[in-house]
Design brief:
Elements lengths: L1 H10 L3 H24 L6 H8 L3 H7 L3 H25 L4 H17 L2 H9 L1 H10 L1 H17 L12 H17 L9 H31 L1
Length: about 220
């Protein structure tokens, strides 16, 4: 019992950690507000410190320059997004449905994200740089996040664990394209977006059917 109690106490965050987390949250909250107000092209480091009720050296101590703050804010938003994604993955037990609903949720979530949309309108290069520089890490995180769900799926056609990284990369590329690049097909509503992604997933089947016909035709010659 004593060892168990010691492990519980050790697992509890210390006052120092709680204080650090609170200051970090204040800085990122202030950064989000300042960027919404002034945009990504403005130098807002001093405004962030003022809004957070901290000195500029303190902000530098915890995060660094404005670029580092934006990257930390991006990381926090990714963590929030993954937390919101969990109920979507829990909502169905079939691999294809999970992929479709994941794309629909992520794209809809991004389209309603005020800071992301402001950046895409005013300075899209900021978003594109973050998505490209963090792409590999995000793909691996998504694959790891999805792994438990595909391990227990009853869908025999679902990807096995070794295929999750390619699936996660497919998901990442489709989502980033839908978020950042205007298209010809109308995908504005969740319903139309769901139809589009569902049809997109059917394309490999069509390709396989055409390949089979070619093989059959060759065999008859």
């Amino acid at each position: 019992m004593r060892k168990e109690a010691q492990r519980v106490v050790a697992a509890r965050p210390t006052v120092e950690i709680l204080r650090r987390n609170e200051i970090c949250a204040r800085i990122l909250d202030a950064a989000e507000e300042c960027l919404m107000q002034s945009g990504f092209r403005s130098r807002v480091h001093a405004a962030i410190a003022q809004r957070a009720g901290l000195s500029r050296p303190t902000v530098y101590k915890y995060f660094g320059d404005q670029t580092a703050i934006i990257e930390a804010l991006f990381e926090r938003e990714v963590n929030r997004f993954l937390a919101h994604l969990r109920p979507v993955l829990d909502g169905t037990h079939h691999a294809k449905a999970r992929l479709v609903e994941s794309v629909v949720f992520i794209v809809s979530y991004a389209r309603q994200h005020e800071l992301l949309q402001k950046s895409l309108k005013e300075d899209p290069q900021v978003v594109m740089q973050l998505l490209s520089s963090r792409g590999g890490g995000l793909i691996e995180r998504v694959a790891q996040y999805m792994s438990p769900y595909y391990k227990r799926t009853p869908d025999a056609q679902g990807p096995d664990e070794t295929a999750l990284v390619p699936v996660a990369e497919w998901l990442y590329r489709v989502v980033t394209s839908l978020i950042t690049t205007p298209g010809v097909v109308d995908t504005e509503s969740p319903e139309k977006l769901r139809d589009f992604v569902t049809e997109l997933l059917e394309l490999p089947t069509l390709g396989q059917a055409e390949k089979t016909e070619v093989v059959r035709a060759s065999a008859t010659v």
